[in-house]
């Protein structure tokens, strides 16, 4: 299916927050039939987290450009991206002197045939917003631990990642969402924890689902606002608003199939 004109609007934005440098990376790639969104948050507690995040983006871009579109199996493609990126990060770490263990989160989304597919590892999130509500979102791969407080203070809860790319020899177990048919007005948001941990979900919905403000204005403004909060982490987001109605997508699908059959039908009556 060829995506119809003005089927979507999209935007990306990033800011270092109150950190010395930005370890987040994102991507937005598209062909005539398929869109790929991605985001990685390099782990700051390990060396070269920004390199791990960049390697994920590089692997995704390379595979996307080399793979025939539309993708035969979007979920398999995303798993391939994550698995290959994990191996690439491990190789990079082993080549350093002394060896290091860079690590990163990952969240990917493929939009094709009017549906969205997604996969993630870690606590970078995907939200699917519909009709002013969170219709679906990823569940973080993390657990809550209580750190001891200072003298006279209670322990403090702290979320620790249970899965990431890099570090362990075996690739992480990746969680995949079910293919979901998009409706006009749906909004897909991929973001690092620097955004979702500091901005309430209702604010995300209210800001990004406002039709009066285009995404390429609303998203950078939201990221900038968040990055100026005290002790803000790196803040990165990729967002897409779906504009095409389902009947348009289905009619385009039927037209593409007719065109394909016509192009591959011989005029030989004996064939």
What can you see in these coordinates?
The protein is an alpha+beta fold and 271 residues long. It has one domain (8-263): PPM-type phosphatase domain (Phosphatase 2c, domain 1). Helix content is 31%, strand content 30%. A 5-stranded antiparallel beta sheet has the order 1-12-11-6-7. Strands 2-3-4-5-10 form a 5-stranded antiparallel beta sheet, with helices on one face. Strand 2 and strand 3 form a beta hairpin. Helix 1 crosses helix 2 (74-95). The chain is globular. Mean pLDDT is 87; it is low at 251-271.
What does the secondary structure layout of this molecule look like, with pairings?
Elements: E1 8-15, E2 24-30, E3 34-41, H1 49-66, H2 74-95, E4 106-112, E5 115-121, E6 125-130, E7 133-137, E8 142-147, E9 156-161, E10 175-181, E11 187-191, H3 193-196, H4 201-208, H5 215-227, E12 235-242, H6 246-263
Antiparallel strand pairs: 1-12, 2-3, 3-4, 4-5, 5-10, 6-7, 6-11, 8-9, 11-12
Helix pairs in contact: 1-2
Notable features of this structure?
five-stranded antiparallel β-sheet, single chain, 6 helices
* Strand order in space, largest sheet: 1-12-11-6-7
Instruction: Enumerate how many helices there are, as a single number.
Output: 6
Oligomer state equals single chain
Query: What is the N-to-C order of secondary-structure elements (H for helix, E for strand)?
Result: EEEHHEEEEEEEEHHHEH
Largest sheet: 5 strands, antiparallel
Q: What characteristic shape results from the CA principal axes?
A: globular
CATH fold name:
Phosphatase 2c, domain 1
Q: Supply the CATH architecture.
A: 4-Layer Sandwich
Distance between the termini: 28 Å
Provide the CATH top-level class. Alpha Beta
Which spans have pLDDT < 50 for at least 5 consecutive residues? 251-271
Structural class: alpha+beta
């Amino acid at each position: 299916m060829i995506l119809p004109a003005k089927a979507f609007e999209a935007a990306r934005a990033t800011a270092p927050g109150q950190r010395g440098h930005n370890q987040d990376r994102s991507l937005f790639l598209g062909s005539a039939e398929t869109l790929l969104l991605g985001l990685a948050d390099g782990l700051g507690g390990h060396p070269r987290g920004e390199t791990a995040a960049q390697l994920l983006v590089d692997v995704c871009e390379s595979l996307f450009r080399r793979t025939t579109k539309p993708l035969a199996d979007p979920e398999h493609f995303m798993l391939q991206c994550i698995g290959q990126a994990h191996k690439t990060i491990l190789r990079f770490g082993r080549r350093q002197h002394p060896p290091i263990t860079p690590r990163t989160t990952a969240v990917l989304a493929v939009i094709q045939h009017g549906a969205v597919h997604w996969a993630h590892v870690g606590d970078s999130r995907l939200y699917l917003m519909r009709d002013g509500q969170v219709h679906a979102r990823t569940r973080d791969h993390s657990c809550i631990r209580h750190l001891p407080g200072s003298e006279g203070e209670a322990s403090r809860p702290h979320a620790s990642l249970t899965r990431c790319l890099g570090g362990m020899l075996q690739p992480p177990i990746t969680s995949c969402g079910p293919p979901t048919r998009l409706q006009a007005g749906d909004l897909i948001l991929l973001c690092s924890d620097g955004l979702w941990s500091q901005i309430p979900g209702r604010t995300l919905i209210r800001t990004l689902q406002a039709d009066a403000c285009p995404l390429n204005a609303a998203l950078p403004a939201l990221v900038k606002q968040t990055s100026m909060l005290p002790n803000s982490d790196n803040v990165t987001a990729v967002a897409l608003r779906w504009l095409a109605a389902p009947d348009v997508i289905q009619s385009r699908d039927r037209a593409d199939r007719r065109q394909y059959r016509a192009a591959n039908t011989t005029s030989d009556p004996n064939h």
